[in-house]
Amino acid sequence: MTDLPTTVTASATSGPHAVRPFAVISGAQVQQVLEGREKQLVELAEAVYRLHGAGDSVNPPSYFLRFPDRPASRIIALPASIGGDVRVDGVKWISSFPENVRAGIPRASAVLILNDQDTGYPFACLESSIISATRTAASAALAADRLSRDRPRPTRVGFVGTGLIARYIHTFLAGTGWSFDETGVHDLAADSAAGFRRYLEQSGTTGRITVHHSAEELIRSSDLVVFATVASEPHVGDPAWFSHNPVVLHVSLRDLAPEVVLASANIVDDVEHCLKADTSPHLAERLTGGRDFLQGTLDDVLAGRVTVPADRPVVFSPFGLGVLDLAVGKYVYDDMVRSGELHVIDGFFHELRRYG
Question: Which one of 63, 241, 280, 312 is most buried, by most CB atoms within 10 A?
Answer without folding.
Answer: 280
